[in-house]
Specification:
Layout lengths: L8 E5 L4 H12 L3 E6 L6 H4 L8 E5 L12 E4 L6 H4 L3 H22 L2 E7 L26 H21 L3 E6 L2 E2 L10 H11 L3 E4 L5 E3 L1 E2 H12 L9 E3 L4 E3 H12 L5 E4 L14 H7 L7 H18 L2
Parallel strand pairs: 1-2, 1-4, 2-3, 4-5, 5-6, 6-11, 7-10, 8-13
Antiparallel strand pairs: 9-12
This protein binds nicotinamide-adenine-dinucleotide and uridine-5'-diphosphate (UDP).
Uridine-5'-diphosphate binds next to helix 6 and strand 8.
């Protein structure tokens, strides 16, 4: 259902967060009517301040664990803390956001017949025994560990998406997002890219957890948002789950060396204990996304880091 002037009405939950703010920006640039819903747990008003003058943009402070009664054509469900220290701060709430949040957006999609996109995660694969990870791998997840609130919450959300799809014909798009970085990451979120960049800019030691030989594959935010838009535009046969990320894999030690090289300064590597259940390796197989979306990331790590370093440099000097 479209409203009278046929501008698409798009809801972005978690729209004031890192990825959500980039998504709102992109959706507005394409002429959509965007409603950003956020409770500002990890998101910041500063992330969307530059959008507030746009007459097609609206912001609502709301906790997505409670139902929302609005009329929409598309929903992107991003509301959920994504960084381990944030999602472990209140693990019960993390599971609630994933599960109750999914039920609420799916209920909304069912009533309004909106398409609904779920920001799922590579964490559904846990500490994977299969490398690289493909969508048909069921994962290796500890159900009772310190990451479980997030991993199992997101897994249950996927279950709900597919059950609403089978049972109620809700049109779903489930993306499994691999580590993504860029401007507007939270300065204190403890994720590896923001930590290393901020530490290097401050001339502090770079904290490597474990031996630094665990791997991740880092996608720049603009590449990821492009994939979100393409996935949402696919036909009903494409539901996902679909891996979205950059398949170029780095060890954490390699990442630290690249950041030090790019920022300069005298930061040294220091080694700290590896948090429990920290996955040893992670790399997406993006064959499905390439085929279904005609998409692959274009921005190499060093190119994305230039913009990320510039953002944090400005943030540390000027605040905001
Ligand atoms: P983020 O923490 O910056 O954004 C999450 C947003 O959700 C924040 O604005 C936060 O305030 C909001 N939020 C949290 N709880 C809420 C609630 N109950 N009601 C309303 N809003 C709430 O993180 P991000 O990196 O932008 O991640 C966005 C989504 O993408 C998350 O669902 C995350 O799980 C998923 N994801 C991100 C990555 C990544 O590398 N960035 C990887 C995998 C999955
Ligand atoms: N990590 C690290 N030093 C830091 C922050 C993170 O060595 O200061 C490691 C962390 O243990 C993990 C990897 O970097 O192995 C990625 O961590 P992040 O929290 O960014 O994401 P996730 O573990 O969820 O992929």
């Amino acid at each position: 259902m479209r409203h009278y002037d046929s501008i698409k009405r798009v809801l972005v939950t978690g729209g004031a967060g890192f990825l959500g703010s980039h998504l709102c920006e992109r959706l507005l640039a394409e002429g959509n009517d965007v409603l950003c819903v956020d409770n500002y747990f990890t998101g910041r008003r500063a992330n969307i301040a530059h959008l507030l003058d746009n007459p097609n943009f609206e912001v609502m402070r709301h906790d997505i664990t409670f139902p929302l009664y609005i009329e929409v054509d598309e929903i992107y469900n991003l509301a959920c803390p994504a960084a381990p220290i944030h999602y472990q701060y209140d693990p019960v709430q993390t599971t609630k956001v994933s599960v109750h949040g999914a039920i609420n957006v799916l209920g909304l999609a069912k009533r309004t017949k909106a398409k609904v996109f779920q920001a799922s995660t590579s964490e559904v694969y846990g500490d994977p025994n299969v490398h690289p990870q493909k969508e048909d791998y069921w994962g290796n997840v500890n159900p009772i560990g310190i990451r479980s609130c997030y991993d199992e919450g997101k897994r249950c959300a996927e279950t709900l998406f597919f059950d609403y799809h089978r049972q109620n014909k809700v049109r779903i798009k489930v993306a499994r997002i691999f580590n993504t970085y860029g401007p507007r990451m939270h300065v204190n979120d403890g994720r590896v890219v923001s930590n290393f960049v901020v530490q290097a800019l401050r001339g502090e030691d770079i904290t490597i957890y474990g031996d630094g030989f665990q791997s991740r594959s880092f996608c720049y935010c603009d590449d990821l948002i492009e994939a979100f838009i393409r996935l949402m535009a696919t036909g009903e046969d494409v539901t996902g789950p679909m891996n979205l990320g950059n398949p170029v894999e780095f060890t954490i030690k390699e990442l630290a060396e690249v950041v030090i090289d790019m920022v300069g300064g005298g930061s040294k590597l220091v080694f700290k204990p590896l948090p429990s259940d920290d996955p040893r390796q992670r790399q997406p197989d993006i064959g499905y996304a390439k085929k279904a979306l005609g998409w692959e990331p274009k921005i190499a790590l060093r190119e994305g880091l230039i913009k990320t370093i510039a953002y944090f440099n400005d943030y540390l000097k000027n605040g905001n």
